[in-house]
Write a structure and sequence with these properties.
homodimer, eight-stranded parallel beta barrel, 13 strands
Chain lengths: 458, 458
Amino acid sequence: MKKQIHLLGFAQNSVAPHSPGLWRHPKDEGQRHGEISYWIEIAQLLEEGKFDGIFFADVYGVYNVYRNSYKPGIQHAVQSPLHDPLLTISAMASATKNLGFASTISTTYIQPYYLARQLTTLDHLTKGRIGWNIVTSYLESEALNLGLKGKINREERYARAAEYMEVVYKLWEKSWEDGAIVADKESDTYTDPEKVHAINHKGKYFEVPGPHISNPSPQRTPVLFQAGASSKGRDFAAKNAEAIFCVQHDVEGMKAFSKDVRSRAKQVDRNEDDILIFPAMLPIVGSTEEEAKNKYKELQSLLSYDGAVSILSGHLGVDFSVYDPDQYIENIETDAIRGVFDLYVGGKKKWTIREAVMHRGLGNESVKFVGTPEQIADEMELWMDEGDINGFNINQATTPGTFRDFVKYVVPELQKRGRYRTEYEGTTLRENMFGKGNIQLADNHPAKKINISVPTLQ
Amino acid sequence: MKKQIHLLGFAQNSVAPHSPGLWRHPKDEGQRHGEISYWIEIAQLLEEGKFDGIFFADVYGVYNVYRNSYKPGIQHAVQSPLHDPLLTISAMASATKNLGFASTISTTYIQPYYLARQLTTLDHLTKGRIGWNIVTSYLESEALNLGLKGKINREERYARAAEYMEVVYKLWEKSWEDGAIVADKESDTYTDPEKVHAINHKGKYFEVPGPHISNPSPQRTPVLFQAGASSKGRDFAAKNAEAIFCVQHDVEGMKAFSKDVRSRAKQVDRNEDDILIFPAMLPIVGSTEEEAKNKYKELQSLLSYDGAVSILSGHLGVDFSVYDPDQYIENIETDAIRGVFDLYVGGKKKWTIREAVMHRGLGNESVKFVGTPEQIADEMELWMDEGDINGFNINQATTPGTFRDFVKYVVPELQKRGRYRTEYEGTTLRENMFGKGNIQLADNHPAKKINISVPTLQ
């Protein structure tokens, strides 16, 4: 069997999260993001398309780096207004059977004991369909609103995240033994207390005695996603992640990235293929190549420059309003800024800032596959085989129009080629990603090797 | 029209939360609390019974005061295992139209900026059916697991909570003006940034620049519930609460409590009837008085003493294992402990500890109304009129058996007497509690009078 493609649908609980300005498209429905019915429709659409899951980006603050103000971000609906994605999941789960739900939650602002209960709860409610995109957060506005004096530097954030993972692994994997709930009426024992252990975690950043407040869910630990692109981020992913989101713009870059991540995984005693790699991709489908290209132009014309540059400024912590948008990137004096654009426009330095920002802005960094269903499927197969990836994180220009087109036109083409499932393999997210029977973390995952000390809180 | 009775259904996302041991009842379904279908069934049942809402208790830690160990609590399913109630709400909302959802969230462990988004999100998803039970938390095990060195004393908790409310009021009521979202395609303006304000809160406990990350929901501020019984708690409620949960055991005590709360409300320039008062009540219905009494006995026989005393020890922070359960309360040397029992058994000091604990344990402190539908309705009317209350927080012995019996037998009796709605007044929780058109906080509520300073974060 050909290597199978896995798909995730990229979303956020805001208006036009990854394509600023596209709320202006006549068919865009993002303004409905506060309605349950909107999320149920999207979930059912992705399940019809046999996606592994829907993946929610999230931040906890406004974008206020551009022009040193929150106003451009607010005006152009740059991931704003933003609602909590976790709170939509049980409604979507009640209207679907197989689709997974992976959400971004930050290790910097949510206490691990609280997060552990959130994800255990959702994994119970969905019968094992939950994933977690582990982030350490990057916006200064999040830090300031959530009780810190300022953003923690990357080194410290990752050190804290490493210990955070230790805490939640102990809670999910070691605190409650299998079969702890006995519900024995005779002895008035609902849970055998000898099978529930305090974790007594005492580290540099966290002290958590435990035990976990919730009984183990079907997957125990949710499927672990991560998206760090820095070297620190990749090391963290190599150790913890079961799937990685990434951004690459050509198949050579993709190949190099995959090779790097897989070799880092081996260095921490995991297998090369223990980590599924999902580059972000924006599909723009037409019945002819020309139609697709015209569609791309139409979408570009609705993209908001101020919105796109606000989001870029926030991601990088650099206020781009100091640069003339019509100057050539190659004329910018700061190496770091030129380097950033290299990443997005593939070293084509004759671009202006405006051109590069607009190119990047549609589908927020995603590589764009523009063409007929056959052309898009060709490109996907090429990336699968040459780029050594496992699937794609499908981004949207219009919501849910992009998903709708993709499910209607590209999915059948992938199925025809034997590249894509026609039925789900299992009912849990991990099974659909790693095969029937793989409900819980693999035995060689670091979480499985953690020991908890002998309980002292008796 | 006779003064109308309002009803809330008291729940928690655990097995037999307020009647330890009752999971052993042959018809109890609490073990299904991890399933979405369980919560949808309960929500539909309460909506069929025209309840104002379902009210979720919650804690973030295990009960480990009794015997200085978490083991008795774990063994007897004392609010354990416990899942997150907020995450069930969107599923219940998608299966109902009018029922409200009020959940307990602590001001001590969740950052106000994060909580504000959670509740705004849910109020959007439910189209205005959200309430918040404001608690400051009492379990040491919560503090230790959630990043504190130990429990904060009551004085400090309430001072912190007062400032917390200021922060969330600013976010909900003052950060986004009405009509801020204009979705004007011509000017590429989704939100008018001049109508969105930073709150620039700088206080003793919190610094929150804002603006709120989410646009205003139908109710803006969720309906505010509170349950503090201490003098500090009552003052807090008088200032902030729109509804109070309380525990009283006879109509005289109820009357005194209501008088006290209503006079405190007047002292802070609110009206006597701005606060709805809901005592906890466990209804045990029979077709005859004898049948009801036998049912009470049967339920008592399934109550777990160790479970009930674990929960009491946790509530009071006193390890009752040091006392012989069969000693008379009047012989206990500690005044404070005797005083506590006075509260539950109405000064009948010839009770043993065991008798008092078992009496208290069924429906966790609730007053018990045991009898025919007519007798229960009589008692409810008496409390309404003499006790000067607005309704009841209906507790359960078996779940959802108690709700089922109440909806089937008592609700029609109340309707027959003209004491209870046959149709909902509105679609938001606040309208169903305060009448059609009262969607947002009353103008005389302190939250409406808060000023935010001129934004400095531009």
